[in-house]
Here is the input.
Amino acid sequence: MSRVVLRSLVHRITAHPDVPLAYTASCESCSWKAEPSADGEAVDVECMAHSGRSNHRQFTRTVTGRAFVVREGEDPKPPAP
Ligand SMILES: [Zn+2]
Here is the structure.
C-alpha cells in the first residue's frame, strides 16, 4: 500500500505592482463608451460630459486590474504570466 502525504500551503492574492487599474464606462442608453484610463476621475468627467450632451444618465463603470497569488515564504514578486 502506498502512502500519500498531503500538506497545505498558505496563499494570498495581491495586486500586481506594475499593472495599474484600468477604468472604463459605457452608456446604458446608447453605444457611447468612455476612453479607458488609469484615472477613474477622468472617466467620470467623460461620463458627465456625455450626459450633458445627451441627457443619458446611467453608465456601467468597470475597474479591472491584475493580481497574482503568492505562496507563504515565496518572494512576493509577480511570476511570469
Ligand atoms: Zn448615451
The mean pLDDT is 93. Residues 27, 29-30, 32, 50, 54, 56 surround zinc ion (CB under 6 Å). DSSP finds one helix and four strands in the chain. Residues 23 and 63 are 5 Å apart (CA to CA).
